[in-house]
Each structure stands twice: as C-alpha cells, then as structure tokens.
Amino acid sequence: MMDALLNALPHAFAPSSLLAVLIGTIAGLLVGALPGLTVTTGLAVLIPLTFGMDPLFALGMMAGMYNGGSYGGAIPAILLRVPGTPASVATLMDGYEMTKQGKAAYALQVAVVSGVIGSVLSALALIGLAPLLVKLSLMFGPAEYFWVAILGLATVASLLGDDLLKGLMAAFIGLLIGTMGTDLATGTERYTFGRLEFAEGMDIVVLLTALFAIPPVIQMIETAGHKGMSKELLNLRKQGSVLKDWRRFLPIWMRSSVIGIIIGILPGAGGSMSCYLAYNDAKQRSKDPDSFGKGNPDGVAASECGNGADNAASLIPALSLGIPGSGVAAVILGGLLVHGLRPGPQLFTEHPDVVYGFMLQMLISAVLLYFVGGLAATRIFGQVLRLPHVVLAPLILMFVAIGVYAVNNSTFDLYLLLGIGLIAYVMERLDYPSPPIILGVILGPIAEGQLSLALTISGGHPLALIASPMSMIVVTLTVLILAMPIWGMWKKRSRAAV
Fold this sequence. Notes:
InterPro entries: DUF112_TM (IPR002823)
Radius of gyration: 22 Å
Number of helices: 23
Strand content: under 5%
Structural class: mainly alpha
Organism: Cypionkella aquatica
Number of strands: 2
Order of helices and strands: HHHHHHHHHEEHHHHHHHHHHHHHH
Number of domains: 1
Strand order of the largest sheet: 1-2
Keywords: Membrane, Transmembrane, Transmembrane helix
Protein name: C4-dicarboxylate ABC transporter permease
Largest sheet: 2 strands, antiparallel
Transmembrane segments: 12-31, 43-66, 106-133, 145-161, 167-186, 198-218, 252-279, 318-338, 358-378, 390-408, 463-487
C-alpha cells in the first residue's frame, strides 16, 4: 500500500493534476451555489466533457467538483434559505438565521472551514480504509460478488427513496437497461431494437447526463424568473475568525466527521443523512439546545462537517467493491467506466497509480477548498446567484448537448438524451429516485456475469451460491436491509389503524 501511495505522489502533485483539481473545485463551487443544481448534476455534465482526457486529469476535476460542490450548496442555503444541494438542508436552519442577524460572512466562514475539516478527515479515511477493504474482497469468489452486487442494489434502492417499492422499481429499470447490448456469454443481441448504437449497450455518458442534468434544467425553466437575488443580501464583510474559535468547534468537528465517515461507508446513505445526524448530535450534546434553529453557528459547523466527511468516505466501498456509498459516488463510478477503469479489487492491481492518485486528489481538493472557497471566492460565487434562471437554463442545456455530442459525434445520442431526460423528469415528479437506475446499470451486468461464472464453476448447482459463510452473511444483510423499511411501514400503518 505504502509503495503504491508513494509512487502515486508525483502523479497527484503534477502541475496538470493540480490544475485539474483547481478547475474542478471552482466548477463545483459554482454548481453547488446554484439552487436547483447538485453535485450529481455537475458531475453528469462534466463526465462527457472529460471524454478522451487523461484519466487522472479527469478524476482530478471530479474530485474537485465533489468537494467544491459539497460546500457550494451552503452559499444559497445561508444567504437565501434555499439549499443549493440536498445535503445542505440542515445548514440553512441556523445559517439563514445568522444572515438575518447580519452574520452571513461568519456563517459562510464556519461552513467552509467545517467542510474542509470533514473532507480532509474523510479523504484520509479513504486512503487508509479502501486498500484494507480490497484485501477483504480478495476472499470473495463469483458467488460472493454476485451477492455483494445484490446487496448494493437492495441497499441503495431502499435508502435513496421515501418509498421502498419505487426504489426497487427504479433499480429494476436500471437492471433492464443493463441487459441491453450483446450477451457476452451467448453472443445474442438483447433489447437493441435493431439499432447498431445499442449493440454495446446503453451509453453510460448519455444515461448519466439525461438522468441527472436534464430534470433540474426543466425545473429551472418551469420557475424561470427574470430577477435574481437582491444586492443587499450580498454585502458580505469579514466578521470574526473561525480559526480563533477552534476550541469551541473542535468537539463538533470530530464527532461530525466520525458520523459522516460512517454514513459515507454505508452504501446508499448519502450526504443528506450524515448532515442531519451530525446536526442532531450537536444539538443533543449542546448546553443550549434551544438556540439551534435560531442562528447557532454550531449547527452550521456540524451540518457542513458531516456533509464534507461523507464525500470521500462514500468512495471507499465504491472503489474497493464497486458499491457506491451515495448517488454522487454512483455517478463517479460511471465516470471511471467511461475512462475504461472498472471499480473493484482489480482497479488497485491494474491501475494503482490512477486509483491512489485519485485518492490523493480528494485530499488535495479538500485542502484547496479552504483557499478557493474562502470569503473572497464566496463573494464572487455569491454574485452568480443574481443570474436569473431564464439565462442559466439555456446555458446549461448548451453545455450538456455539446458534451454528449462530442462523445460519439452522434445526433442519435442527442435524441436519446432528450427522450431519457423527459422520462427522468416525469419519474422525478412521481418521486422515483434516479440513483438506483444507475446502480442497476452498473451492478446488473456484474451480478449477471458473476452468477453465470458461479453456476458454471459449480456445474449448474444453485445451492453453490450460498455454500460459503461469506455468502450467507451477505445474503442475511440483504434480507435485513430490505426488511427494515417494510417493518417501519408496517409499524406506521399499525399505529395509524389504532
């Protein structure tokens, strides 16, 4: 591990790599600061633009956008009471109250420092834990990997949606899309509808962009206004120093980081859960819990630190096992596939410089965020909030169309982008989660291939799938994960009946 990490250092700290991280961090701040857009959307737009680039340069931009967008969402949450990203919802509870008290600059400073600390500790956890998880995964055979893929699908489908059934249906749609193309075992074409473009399956770039970039743009068009944010709220002056108050925030940062890292490792939990749990923990342990929601900076610190700590941690199971810990990690998995990098243990053996370089880039981007995302950058990106949606929407659509077309130089991809994007918008309005679809596309073929291999090795005996203790453990976890929301719904209905 140490040898691979040392060998990756020159690649991660190369001028081109640092430039990529800087570009990604700035772009992430911009995306996160725009209400309606998320880090997932930004990455979905970024991935097609990186097609043909050096993998480490592309991953550097993704790392920067991930950490930058995580903090960027706090800007409109604090200034406008509008969460820039779903994970910044808890931040607005105290952040906006501080703005009304004339402490917007201090609130933003608390947010960026807390986010940086959480992101740095999360990146260190990624560097330390991912290789260990890879060693554990080497004990897995085809049967175990099949159940791990099923576990990933079950976990994400049940945790990323309010409705378990809708989550499972979204995952099933992803599994169907994953079967498109030529079956490697038999050579038979499946669900290609006679189109040569589908011979190798659904293009992951088009699918990612359509699912995560088009629906938010349509929503922006629906609510398009001709006025942006008022100038008065953007009068940001330096107020106090968070670093001088470190003794006050240190316990909150430590506890929130631990919470965020644990939630990040759990597949499907996502940043929204980590920021809420960190916020609730800070409130419960506070000597003055009634002050939370009324402008207490501890609430901002806990929320943003937990949010930042979730980032790199969600990549631990993604890089080592191919099971993302969040929707953003799922999109990054798609980005790895676009550049010919298959997540899993083989990634650490076949491309050690790239994977360890990427983990170092997550650490670099977290540190860089402190300098780029300071008060000066906050002032600049705060001004972007004054742009009306009627201007932003067509600009985003233009970049999306250019990026998708550049992948294959195909107008068919543009029609596919529009069609899938409209379907994704309808599904979003009906509260169907999109991340399980991507996970179905990524994990479905893995599960199918490993199942075929396991049955071939065992001579077609299905009991071989549950013959090992590791398989039984993963199966039990899958059943428990699916049973927990069902149990919750049953208890809720039982109480309602009484």
